[in-house]
Write a structure and sequence with these properties.
The structure holds 2 protein chains of 2 kinds. Chain A has helices at 6-20, 31-34, 36-42, 54-66, 86-92, 95-98, 128-132, 145-157, 172-180, 192-195, 227-241, 259-269, 284-294, 314-320, 324-336; strands at residues 2-5, 24-29, 47-50, 70-77, 108-113, 138-140, 162-167, 196-199, 212-215, 220-224, 246-250, 253-255, 271-279, 300-306. Chain A is of the alpha/beta class. Chain A starts with a strand and ends with a helix. By secondary structure, chain B is an alpha/beta fold. The N and C termini of chain B lie far apart (46 Å). The chains are: A alpha/beta, B alpha/beta. Chains A and B meet through helix 1, helix 3, strand 3, helix 4 and helix 9 of A and helix 10, helix 11 and helix 12 of B.
Chain lengths: 337, 342
């Protein structure tokens, strides 16, 4: 095995894929500097900086993909997709059905997401539940370098629109550019295993819609995605010290949702805790509860999510985002019953 | 009508000293994440804000500090907000990109272009509730390619809304040269959408003031919107700690980890050799422009305005000391507040 950073794994997959398939093009704001290596290697026609015109270039990606390209279109932060979401909600996601299955939009939307570095509630959202809600969309959120590479490969190969969200705490260049800006006097709760880790010698696609059981548990099942997965693993280790055997599932994909894996675990332990950095209400966590109930499984359920606009103040931000203390509290309450 | 050079200088000097203090606090790690300052835009902001009176509204972007400083918002409240303190302007909930002051009808957004629709709404409310009052939208030239801003200029023209669209043009959209991603001419574009359009040297506060004077007068008399284009330079780049500026200032340290992958990318596979050479050339050009921006100290708007003062050196020194003391007191108040755990 070799090791890579989260961002390095994505770039490695993109470099290989773009070398093998000339139809793959990248466009988005500032990509000549954010993707400097790819820009240098593949030239401006394939790695093309755009104006700050999200609705134009996201909309253009839909038809560019319909006409034979495989665009990877970059929205700098997922918060900004609100400006352009029509292209996804009303167009990319609808195409296959509207065309009677005759036309597809093989495009990847790559965006940074997530908080934990004090950038305020308009630049730190997750929004994956919002994007996943529309039929026809796929949404993936890797939590470590191996998944980051494998899921990017699947996203590129997929015949429909895939939103690929990379958490800023896992991508060193985002923390450098947006949080530190050359400073060394600030700390972030960055999970090491998410930032850097083992990757396969040869990249293989990780099927979209397949969760990863990271830890088996008999007493309680934690289901999560992205950075929160690492918070769950830490909480599970602490729970083990208290004699509570908690399992951790990394969903990896928001939609399609791996309901089989979730339901199997919920049935086994009878206690389900969803830890989600996205908003609590009308959400991934609510969807999981509904799916488990529909299956007829009688599991106790709790969730640790973001319940309000994320505060700018880092102390209150830390309380708003899912953290180990909140997870332990919710898990302990579940385990008592 | 002519501007009062001393009034404009005081505003510009205050904003500059304030932002220098903010830069220091940011460097000390007391302010988290991004920080976009108005350094280099002072002449534009002063020349426009001098016309803003109670009942007028300001729609601000991610670089909204200077307009609020010049509008008279309490400096300590601003610093406390930047530091995320509970007694800050917005209780530490918004931070520097999301500053709101209902008393001043001032609202900010970190979404590029969002000040366009915001100003239209303020102006529409003025048509109903505050006849003769106007709304100002501040944005950069990068925002001129954002659909919602174009729609806003049209809306303001069609409804004859009292909006002054202030376009601060530093020629760079984040790190992308605007000329490379912008077709046509911005003034022609604004005129095509029905606005009066004028372009001024944004380092000259008097020139901005005179253009703004006309625009405000027109808007107050139901004469419709104006697009006020003003050029400027951002000596600190897009944000504090701008990655490109860091490379230019400390090339050895910043390039150490970047050069090897870049050279590998340039020398292996991918596109044709000439395309790869063009890409490398474009990166070198980008760093060269950044470096040049750094060295263009001569056009500093605050310094220029100081030269225009007709007051004595002693009077100027008094003015500067007064402002320095105000800024220092605001910083001290914020630090006291932080120590008290707010």
């Amino acid at each position: 095995m070799k090791t890579m950073t989260f961002a390095g794994a994505i770039e490695d997959v993109l470099t290989k894929a773009m070398s093998e398939d000339e139809r793959i093009v990248i466009f988005g704001e500032d990509v000549h500097s954010i993707r400097m290596n790819l820009f240098t290697k593949f030239g401006e026609m394939r790695v093309r900086p755009t104006p700050i015109s999200e609705s134009a270039f996201l909309g253009a990606a839909v038809t560019a993909s319909m006409a034979g390209l495989r665009p990877i279109v970059e929205i700098m932060m997922v918060d900004f997709i609100a400006v352009a979401v029509d292209a996804l909600v009303n167009h990319a996601a609808k195409l296959q059905v509207f065309s009677g299955g005759r036309w597809k939009a093989p495009m990847v939307v790559r965006a940074s997401c997530g908080g934990g570095y004090g950038d305020g509630g308009q630049h730190e959202q997750s929004l994956w539940g919002w994007l996943a809600q529309v039929p026809g969309m796929k949404v993936v959120v890797p939590s470590n370098p191996a998944d980051a590479g494998g899921l990017m490969l699947s996203a590129i190969e997929d015949e429909g629109p895939v939103v690929y969200l990379e958490h800023k705490l896992l991508a060193d260049y985002w923390i450098d550019g947006l949080a530190d800006g050359g400073r060394t006097n600030l700390d972030y709760d960055i999970p090491e295993a998410g930032l850097r880790g083992e990757v396969p010698r040869t990249w293989e696609p990780i099927p979209i819609g397949e969760a990863n059981v990271l830890r088996d548990g008999e007493d309680l099942t934690m289901v999560s995605v992205g950075v929160s997965v690492h918070r769950c693993l830490e909480a599970a280790a602490r729970l083990a010290e208290r004699g509570v055997d908690a399992g951790v599932i990394d969903l990896r994909s928001i939609t399609p949702l791996d309901t089989d894996t979730v339901c199997r675990a919920a049935e086994k332990t009878g206690r389900l805790l969803v830890v989600d950095e996205d908003y609590k209400h009308f959400s991934l966590s609510g969807e999981i509860a509904a799916v488990v109930m529909e299956t007829g499984i009688a599991a106790k359920f709790a969730r640790v999510c973001v319940e309000d606009t994320i505060p700018f103040d880092r102390r209150r931000e830390a309380q708003t985002l899912p953290n180990v203390a909140r997870i332990l509290e919710a898990a302990s309450a579940l385990a008592e019953h | 009508m002519q501007p009062n050079a001393e009034v404009l200088y005081r505003q510009m000097y205050k904003s500059r000293r304030f932002e220098e203090a903010v830069t220091q606090l940011w460097s000390e790690g007391r302010i988290s994440a991004e920080m976009h300052l108005s350094k280099g835009e002072e002449a534009i902001i002063a020349g426009v804000v001098d016309h803003v009176t109670d009942g007028d509204a300001m729609a601000l972007e991610h670089r909204g500090t200077a307009p609020l400083v010049m509008r008279g918002v309490d400096l300590a409240l601003l610093i406390k907000e930047f530091m995320g303190l509970e007694d800050g302007l917005c209780r530490g909930m918004g931070g520097h990109m999301h500053l709101f002051s209902p008393e001043h009808l001032a609202a900010s957004s970190g979404i590029v272009g969002a000040s366009g629709p915001a100003a239209c709404g303020f102006a529409f409310a003025a048509q109903h509730l505050r006849q003769g009052k106007v709304a100002v939208a501040f944005f950069g030239e990068g925002a001129m390619n954002q659909g919602m801003l174009m729609e806003s200029i049209n809306l303001a023209g069609a409804w004859s809304l009292p909006v002054i669209f202030v376009c601060k043009d530093n020629g760079t959209a984040i790190t992308t040269p605007s000329a490379e991603v912008t077709a046509g001419d911005l003034l022609t574009r604004a005129r095509g959408l029905g606005a009066h359009a004028v372009s001024v040297d944004g380092s000259d506060a008097s020139e901005v003031w005179r253009a703004a004077h006309e625009a405000f007068a027109r808007a107050r008399q139901d004469g419709g919107p104006t697009f006020l284009h003003a050029t400027c330079v951002h000596p600190d780049g897009h944000l504090l700690g701008d990655p490109l500026l860091r490379i230019v200032r400390k090339p050895v340290r910043e390039l150490k980890s970047r050069v090897a992958p870049l050279m590998k990318a340039a020398t292996t596979g991918g596109s044709s050799l000439s395309e790869r050479a063009a890409s490398l050339g474009s990166i070198v050009g980008m760093l060269g422009r950044t470096s040049k921006t750094q060295k263009r100290g001569g056009s500093d708007p605050v310094e220029q305005q100081r030269q225009r003062l007709s007051i004595s050196d002693a009077e100027r020194t008094d003015l500067e000391r007064e402002v320095d003391a105000e800024v220092q007191e605001a910083v001290a108040a914020a630090l006291r507040s932080q120590e008290a755990g707010r």
